[in-house]
Hints:
The chain is mainly alpha-helical. The chain is built from ten helices and no strands. The protein has helices at 6-11, 21-32, 38-61, 74-97, 105-126, 160-165, 206-223, 229-244, 249-265, 272-289. Helix 5 runs antiparallel to helix 7, helix 8 (229-244) runs parallel beside helix 10 and helix 9 (249-265) packs antiparallel against helix 10 (272-289). The longest helix has 24 residues, at 38-61. 37% of the residues are buried.
Amino acid sequence: MAVRDLDDDIDALPPMASSDVDQKFLGRYARDLQDENPYLASMLYKVLGLSVRLARKLLRARKHRRLDTSRDTPSLQLYHQIIWMSREGLTLIGQYIIPMVQKDNELKVLAFKLRGSFFHIFVLFHNTPAVTQVTIPSFTSTSSLASPINGKGKAAIRNPSATATSTPNPMNGGPVGGTTSLPPGLAPISVPKPTSSFLLPAKDYIPDASQSFTEAIALSDSILPGSHPIRLSVKVEYAAFMYDCLRDKEGSRRLAKKAIADVYNAKEGMDDDMFEDAAELVGVLGRMMKRGLNGGATPGSNATATTPPASSRKDVGPAPAVPSPGMDNPI
């Protein structure tokens, strides 16, 4: 996969909860389950705490435009913390929460969505091969091995792997037997692993993330109405994942457009609180629907045209809620 411009990568960093909607529902479920299932409530509180801290670190990561791997920089420590916290959150979701929420439809969809969110972070920061320039690189590379004595006028050591694979001219002679193996005592050079491999195995996490989002979307479409904030949260992050990681820009815009259409076609009522959450997410989807197009909406532009119809609320007030004008695309 081609590596994109760094400015685009900075905008691709996701906060944990498609803004505050997932965190709000996490806290609500944890509070409601304290008496009925205190163990599950404690796991939800742990994921909520991780998501709040992780969201702050992801926003900080947007400010680090260059990663200097020649020294132990704060940005490198920050990326390691993001990977570690995402790994712990994925463990809590997969081993403790999902097995206990099979009978709770909304919480089940939220758990599947959060599992995809953690894999999304792995893809952005720790994928092999890297899909963005914010992925933690290796300290060394087999493509360029410099000489330890790198003074002025000193020639750098040639790449031994390139020397070994070059085809010698048979007219110039060569080693006995015509072999092109490395010289005695020079071991083959292996491709170094990312510096964060001690936290998480270095592999391609795109299939895991794609499967998690696909399952979350299928579940939310079959259980939740089109205007439900959790269902919209799933669509927001999956659309961002398709655009940033799968490079399916047209598919991302189609998904955002269909999600907005589902909101307008939904016949279920909702209270003012859910209406405000849905309006915020619909505003994000409206901007993502135009993302990458000439003259498309900027992340900070207002998107009141895509606000859900006020008639879908149970208690319609005189002033309909609209998305916050400063709402940035969180992904």
